[in-house]
Write a structure and sequence with these properties.
The complex is a heterodimer of chains A (855) and B (409). Chain A is of the alpha/beta class and 855 residues long. The longest helix of chain A has 21 residues. Chain A is built from 28 helices and 34 strands. Chain A has five domains: 175 residues, Rossmann fold, CATH 3.40.50; 221 residues, Rossmann fold (3-Layer(aba) Sandwich), CATH 3.40.50; 53 residues, no CATH class; 214 residues, no CATH class; 62 residues, no CATH class. By secondary structure, chain B is an alpha/beta fold. Chain B has two domains: 238 residues, Nucleotidyltransferase, domain 5 (2-Layer Sandwich), CATH 3.30.420.10; 72 residues, no CATH class. Chain B is built from 16 helices and seven strands. A seven-stranded mixed sheet of chain B has the order 1-2-5-4-3-6-7, with helices on both faces. The mean pLDDT of chain B is 85. Classes of the chains: A alpha/beta (855), B alpha/beta (409). Chains A and B meet through α18, α19, β20 and β21 of A and α1, α5 and α8 of B.
Chain lengths: 855, 409
Amino acid sequence: MSLDSLLERWQADQSIRENIVFWEKTPARPAVKCPFPAEISPSLQHVLRSQGIPQLYQHQANAYKLINNGENLLITSGTASGKSLCYNLPVINDLIQHPNNCAFYLFPTKALAHDQALKLKELLHFIPEFNRKHPQESDALIGMYDGDTPPTQRQFIRQNAQLIFTNPDMLHFGILPNHPQWDRVLSNLRFIIIDEIHVYRGVFGSHIANVIRRLKRLIEYYGGNVNFILTSGTISNPYAFATKLIEEPITLLDEDASPKGEKNLIFYNPPIIQAEFGLRAHPFREAKKLMDDLLKNCSQSIVFCTSHRSVERLLIELRQVYDSELEGSFSQIQGYRSSYLPEHRRQIEQDLKSNKIKTVVATNALELGIDIGELEAVLLIGFPGSIASTWQQISRAGRKNQTSLGILILTSDPLDQYLARNPQYFLESSPEQPLINPDNPLILLNHLRCAMAELPFQEHENFGKANQPLVEALFTAILNYKEAIYETGSYYYISPTAPQNFSLRSSSFSNIQLIVEHENSLNRIGYIDRNSADRLVHPGAIYLHEGETYRVMELDLDNNTAKLSPTNVEYLTNPHQESTIDDLTALSTRHFRYSEGESFRLGYGDVTVNMQVTGYSKVDWDSHQVIERIPLALPPQTLATKAFWISIGEQLVNDLRSQGLWSAEPNKYGTGWEHQKNLARARDGYRCQICEVPETDHAHDVHHKIPFRLFEDSEEANRLENLITLCRNCHQKVESNLRIQSGLAGLGYALSHIAPLFVMCDRNDLGLHVDPNSRWENRLPTILIYENIAGGIGLSQRIFEIALELLHSVYHHIAQCPCPDGCPSCTGAVSENGISGKAEALILLEKIINYEQPF
Amino acid sequence: MNNLSDQLKALGIEVGLDSIKSQPIQPDFLAKDLGGQVIENYSGNLVLVENHYELETFFPQESISPIILKWANSAVQELLGFSDFTIMDIETTGMLGESGVLAFLVGLGTITDNQFTVQQFLITNPAQEMAQLTTIEAQFAKAKGIITYNGKSFDLPILSNRYRFHRSPPPFKPLIHLDLLHLARRIWKNRLPNRALRNIEAEILDVQRKVNDIPGWIIPQIYHEFIQTKRPELLLPVLYHNQMDVYSLARLFIHLNQLIENPNQSDFDYEQDQIALAHFYENLGFYEQAIPQYQKCILGSKNLEDKVHLMEDLAMLYKKQKDFSCSINLWEQAASMGSIISHVELAKYYEHITKDYSFAYSWTESALKLVNSKKEPPEEHIRWQPELQYRLERLARIIHSHFFVGGKP
């Protein structure tokens, strides 16, 4: 059976069709071709023709013309659209005419750079101008310059290569600090190609923007004259992002004239299996069901999982079913994870391309651009966190002439469920936009040091488009730290320590190194911000790194290290964090009217958060139920960052309160509670009334069948008939969340879970602080969302700008959630302290949306 | 918290006061305290400290050893004098490969008549660098060569970077570069485990430094402190250290010239140095010097193993020159002392040159016996056993075929 007939069958099969919440078919489309522009050298045209490229796609020709006109170009055409020819063509043609010219090719990963360098190398072999003396002479033009380049080759590359394939880290650590050794390249630099710019978002992107400022400053010094050619995956408003990244005018080329077969995009929401708690079937189970069909009916596919554990488990289960039907020992189903050896991964990529493998079960290690040929189907288990990344994975399926399929199986995560209900959001007008803030003072300070060491700063010299008063204040700070001196109108960096020794993936002064002990050797797998360490790598935490699972054995804050150990435990961990706001200064506010008074106000500004991780819960991997709560003794820490907040006006609160719809106060179970509790336990024979487990060393919990908050009076709520004895486990199953619940908290929960989708950041980049009585906002109930990144990178400002749109979306999301009383997918699960506040959150939102006239 | 400086403070950045910018200091004042003078050119000014040494006691030669020039790959045919070379040692603000590393002090040594002069070009702030580089360039314009210690990997790349940094071509290309570290390694590799200049000067040259001479690694920190405080006395030990390095380097250069040109002088009487010299001559193709040097070493060698190796080496040198009678003589001697290679070489000689297969057979046979008799070291055994076995079988076949066609067995 072909994929087409399988899709027809799914369409007809009710048991599958009913779970498909979204199905979009993009019809097949032929290529639009055009002849080579006349400016392209005849010999290059000849080579391309002999390579089976008799004509260009329209967008490739257009790209060529724009670049030839001296414009900076941003290319956003999709995967397999001949994107690399868009930038290689002008570079090669220029090199034929100007044999000394040079170009930098920046790729986000080494593997991608190698892949592209190899392809270009093969093409250059055929160009007679580059191979006059002997065949393959052109190989010397390409320099693969990264951390893996042997020292013996580096000098040769610096002295001879003209097309330098590298990555931003190498530019930062290796090339810019040694720029005099690159004077030939920098003086003759004609093009800078930056591939996959959407990767450079957040802190990383803010660093990269500064690395680009440094590069441009040196190019100016050496008198080079460059054009930028950027490519990007699917993001909203790539133009604005690219302009911010390179701080140059840029032309957007978003057409795609390459041929495409029919594409199917399916969102699959696992069916609800337990209505009361809104529990859905496990996505894994559904994935297996669909994969079974795909394996039997489709030629090649990839399954993307979010963790190595899922990869391994799915791999085993699929092999059990499928491999037994096959001859031979080689399995056509392979796993793909970052912990596989590079050679092994290259082999799998190769085998996919040559059709030896039918299915790969992978983590996102496979995500970025590596050429694995065109596949028929891609299946994603769970939303990978951002729309750009989802497109990146889904686009792995797609062929020139035949039908292809991308399926996203949604989990019960709020973001997944949001997409289940708003699939069109995925396709149209997505507000998701990568944000960077190159002027984050901590990030900027580090790069000013580097830039100053690279080339002294003149007094009042600009640094890219960085805020000048900030730059000058930071110059003074560098002087103050005695790392520079000011002499005859210039700042000279004179510190004996090298300024480049910081991570491009962090903004804080200190980083925690993640160390894994492996067969008696210590291996550093990465860094995280000191700020995030308490939450992410506290002792006992389960930490995921590139799809691999580790358990944190030790967090040593004196030596800035966390010791990790690979693990296969069946749970995840969630930190319990308490926060207080130590300072809040608005940079901008918007007020909204409600009859005579204020309905609500939005704010954005500087915040100082005092945070302490007080413990963590172990959460079962499959059921998301809390298994155990463990206290921790970690010191509190202060974070100076930016925040967005929404405060509810007094008028609105009074109105809600008078309607009995306001319940931000925590439950007080009343004076007789302890007594009633003991009576209930005795009545139930000190046994859990669900699993019948008897009490051992500690007392079971006593649960309110009808939530306490719904009663006017505590005695009524605490009647024995309303109480039931439950063991800790069962109690947590029934009330799987411990967050404070109220309309305010429910709204905060939903807001902070949906916002990352709108501002394209990681869940961990945002923190939530809900205060029914905020001293910083006239004692008004306030939801504050702060950035977990010291100094901020613009996330909260963006939330502030799109707040109304976001609040609308959150309202519809909660309103459409089928759960009766809040669930982890909307306002958070029902808790011990009462109900989830779904109803209150909805009413609150309704009022906000209806009374949003500016004050 | 609206003030920029307060906001930065909340992030942990202390801005401090704008008045922190330092006032320029008078270079004359500094130069005087450092025992130098201010010099000026069109790029600005800097400090020059000059010191002179009398050299008569250890300066016997007129011209530089041609063997050393050959070693340095120099194509120069003419005779070069000591005054054609400038000795250089630099002090920097950091390591190579770090950006913005300055060579804040460049010490240059020149030998003229019987005087040795050390000129130290010091910049007291980075703005003076161009003036410093211009001055040095002018100094090198007069020289034909440059002498350094580890200059190939340190001094020259750093200074070249500084020239390129100022968009000016480095002036070193036309110069013959003698990096004495590499020469010292060749000569003293077996005797001195530590070939740092400090160690060489103590072991070989008998140069005495003040006990409180500072270690080199501390110099970047001292300069950093100087540049903040502008206290000249901080730099005095750095100037001394650099001066001594340049002085030592001059002494080392003279010493190496004498050793290489006249190895029989009594104060060079270290067996390992003499052996290293024999190899050195041979590698550079100076066979006229190499052969007597080998012979001297073989005669003088007290260690049997060394002696055998030297005989093997000399025999190979004769073989290269097709002087087989000398080779055979040495091989036979060495073979009797247990040299496997000599056995093999003799077997090869009889098989391929004189076609005397039964001689070749018996040398191979005894070599194999020797290899089988001493199993240590095992890698020797593994290396030779199969090769010899194969050779023996081949020779047996040849002899057999000759026998049956009526040839001489």
